[in-house]
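Cross-check.
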Amino acid sequence: MDSSETIEDIKEKISKTEGLVSDQYELYYEGKSLDTRRGASLKDYNLNGGSTIFLMKSNIDILKVFTLEMDSSETIEDIKEKISKTEGLVSDQYELYYEGKSLDTRRGASLKDYNLNDGSTIFLVPRLMEIFVKEKC
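Predicted model, tokenized:
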């Protein structure tokens, strides 16, 4: 990528290569949204070869509340499967949090292991996609 390219140019490239609609995601660098409306370039944000831009899809409604029937012996992976089936979300595109901590699916932990019980609120947070900026050769 050339440092004179605009953020909008980058979003257009991402849309073409990843099949995403540009208004369904935001780009972030160092925790700040990269604004497409100002015509800002990569140089304006001090982005260069080796910089990492994060893409966050905005099509997941994180304010939606839904109830799942669960048993305390069920695992976090079980919860994600139920969410995927009932809400149509792909399980690797979001993470689950309870009391500010990520609920790890790799350990096989159950609801009981996290002290989750009837009425507990779990937050579903979209995962960020990393995009690496390479300098044009």
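The mean pLDDT is 78. The domain at 76-127 is CATH 3.10.20.90 (Ubiquitin-like (UB roll)). Passed to J.P. for a second look.
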